[in-house]
Amino acid sequence: MTESDEDSTAWRRALRRDMVARRSALGEAAHAALSARIVGHLRAALPRPAIVAFCWPVKDEPDVRAIVEHWVAAGGRAVLPVVVAEAAPLAFREWTAATPMQPDRYGIPTPTAGDWLQPDLILLPLNGFDAAGYRLGYGGGYFDRTLAALSPRPLAVGVGFEINRLASIRPESHDQQLDLIVTETGAFRPRTA
User: Which of 8, 57, 110, 168 maximizes the CB count within 10 A of its CB?
Assistant: First the structure.
């Protein structure tokens, strides 16, 4: 690893901590209100997908379960990501309100049963993000590997709070660009170079 790589790794690690701290400082009422606004923008911006992948909200991420439940009630299906192997793309297991769940190795609630399906839309949490459509995750690279591997690639929609918007995440070669970003202020197509 070069000094430049070490600097980038340290910068991203510190940035991740800062992004989580910003969300944690919101408070329960503000978090719920901002999440509801995001859900409203998702409903206005996107038609019901056949199969939507979403992430169970952790570390004070936006809670978008209301739009997922709305789409499921309208005839869609929902899936949650599952880590099936270290450094491999994610797989997606069907979720319903009755699906048995248990925490995975990262403490994230994960379905223990259900069909394995490929989504046509993925709602990705944004730990940090920029106007070019790049997201800062938690450093495992799972979603970047997954988006690169899925064919056809699902619509990748980032969901996050404006307090986590950055001038640039300093994207690296493996970072996958999102198709749409939705925050409490609206839905935005990424800026292209």
Answer: 110
- Which class does domain 3-188 fall in? alpha beta
pLDDT averaged over the chain?
Answer: 93
Burial class (CB in 10 A: 0-12, 13-18, 19+), 59: middle
102 — phi, psi (to 5°)? -150, 155
CA angle 46, 93, 147 (to 5 degrees): 60
Q: How far apart are the C-alpha atoms of 41 and 179, rounded to whole Å? A: 15
| Pair of tokens at residue 166 | 């950055």
pTM, two decimals, is 0.93
Between strands 180-183 and 186-188, the pairing is antiparallel
Q: Which helix (H) or strand (E) holds 183?
A: strand 180-183
Domain ranges of the chain: 3-188
Cis omega (within 30 of 0) for bond into 62: no
